[in-house]
Amino acid sequence: MGSSHGKARVIRKSYSEGIHFVPMLERSYELFFDLQDLTGSELIKITGGLTVAKKGSDVLDGIKNSAKTYNCEIEILSPSEMKYRWKIFNPDQDMEGVLDLMGGALFPERIIKANLDISKDHGADLRFNTKIVKWRSTGNGVSLETEKGDIIYGDTLIISSGAWLSTLLEDLNLPLFVERQVLFWFNPIKNSKIFLPENSPNHSWEYEDGRTIYVQPNFGQGVKAAIHHDGYEVHPEKINRNRLNVNEEKKLRSIMNPYIPDLDIDSIDHAVCMYTNTPDREFIIDFHPNYKNVLVISPCSGHGFKFSPVIGEIVFNLIITNKCEFNLNPFSIERLL
Ligand SMILES: Cc1cc2nc3c(=O)[nH]c(=O)nc-3n(C[C@H](O)[C@H](O)[C@H](O)COP(=O)(O)OP(=O)(O)OC[C@H]3O[C@@H](n4cnc5c(N)ncnc54)[C@H](O)[C@@H]3O)c2cc1C
Predict the structure, then answer these.
(1) Are residues 203 and 268 in the same domain?
(2) Which CATH number fits the domain that encloses residue 172?
(3) 231 lines ligand 1 (CB under 6 A)
(4) Which of 151, 173, 302, 323 has its CA 20 to 30 A from that of 235?
(5) Residue 85's CATH number
(6) Does ligand 1 have an atom closer than 6 angstroms to the CB of 200?
(7) Region of 141 on the Ramachandran plot (φ > 0 left; ψ -120 to 50 alpha; else beta)
(8) Do 148 and 136 meet the contact criterion of CB atoms below 8 Å apart?
(9) How many angstroms is it from 278 CA to the middle of ligand 1?
(10) Are 290 and 332 in a shared domain?
């Protein structure tokens, strides 16, 4: 019921959202590849990641800037080069493409399973469908109360409840905006081989200033596409996951069709998900301001999955060593109070 499903997630390294994310991403890539080697299951696939936007736009400048600062490999492509290289793309004449050679896909269901299996092998006590209704911190530790009335004790509490973060942190009154997001899968009607991951990258298109759609290759379930943000506010307990609203598919299709005309206009599947957004679209990685044994974690704002292993490592280091090699200032709780 959370925000980590949907068969494929985007990973990319040259990061327009801010160069402070790049060192964390470098570590994330290492950890994803380590996890993949450990499990023998395909968890990450490098396909390249193409961002297409108006030449000179902030998003393209941001990617180029982070690539320059951290020596990430990118290629800059004109509209005719993009059309020639991938026959399925139809960019506007005033657009430019930046191809991040480390862009690719993560497979979230397999990654979560791998993490659960490994943590279980290392002694974790995993409890599913166990709702926490209350928590307390005392000088000596923390306690949790489940919906069924069981009490669980521990040294440290990590609250990472996604769209339900505000529910478990009512005292902080965090300015979080939970946004409905719908993912769609489409079949190609032409050039279906080019939509395969061997032949085309992830691609995102800035169709208006600051507004994008993203599309992933066909990993076997169809071509996944969605509008990034632009959803309306929802409550995680009340969101309707079963029904589409009239315009949701139509809107995506009308934006996508001119750029990628070879996809069928009717989707074959969809999934409803939620973005939990902070006002500045940074994450939350910080101790609770009133309790030093409670850590609040939210890899949120619609771009956090690719950071999940490095954030896991950061959490471990904060709890065990109280040190972190990354600058966590952008992710402080104080900025939101
Ligand atoms: C449609 C969509 C596409 C995305 N695409 C990308 C992408 O391409 N690349 C990328 O990097 N990121 C992407 N993201 C963002 C990223 O996937 C999410 O931000 C991230 O996975 C959220 O993880 P989380 O652990 O914070 O939250 P969740 O995955 O929602 O996990 C929170 C969990 O806490 C549980 N919980 C809540 N309250 C309680 C309680 N009281 N007691 C017990 N359990 C509780 C919930 O049931 C849930 O399982 C996308 C997000 C969405 C929605």
Answers:
(1) yes
(2) 3.50.50.60
(3) no
(4) 151
(5) 3.30.9.10
(6) no
(7) left
(8) no
(9) 14
(10) yes
Query: Which domain-ending residue is among 277, 296, 315?
Result: 277
Can you give the residue range of the structural domain that contains 46?
Answer: 9-109+177-277
Distance 212 CA to ligand 1 centre (A): 20
137 and 87 both lie in a single domain: no
pLDDT score at 303 = 96
Show which of 259, 277, 295 is a domain's final residue. Answer: 277
Q: Which of 4, 104, 99 has the alpha carbon at shortest distance from 44?
A: 104
Q: Which residues contact 152 (CB under 8 A, 6 or more apart)?
A: 143, 144, 146
Segments in the chain below pLDDT 50: none
Closest CA to 88 of 255, 257, 237: 257
DSSP 165-202: HHHHTGGG----EEEEEEEEEEEESS-GGGGSTTT--E
Q: What is residue 246's predicted lDDT score, i.e. its pLDDT?
A: 80
- Find the helix or strand (DSSP H, E) in which 44 lies: strand 44-46
The pick from 1, 7, 9, 185 for probing ligand 1's pocket by mutation, whose C-beta has the most ligand atoms within 8 angstroms, reads 9
Flag whether the pTM goes above 0.85. Answer: yes
Judgement on whether residues 159 and 172 belong to the same structural domain of the protein? yes
Alpha carbons within 13 angstroms on the beta-carbon side of residue 93 total: 0
Q: Confirm or reject: Cβ of 131 under 6 Å from ligand 1.
A: yes
Same domain, residue pair 32 and 158: no
pLDDT tens, position by position, 301-311: 999 999 999 99
Report yes or no: 211 and 59 within 8 Å, Cβ to Cβ.
no
Kindly state the tokens that stand for 222. Answer: 């169809």
Q: Is residue 83 one of the residues assigned to a domain? A: yes
| CA separation for the pair 116, 114 (Å, rounded) | 6
Query: Are residues 184 and 78 part of one domain?
Result: yes
Ligand 1 atom closest to Cα of 183?
Answer: 1
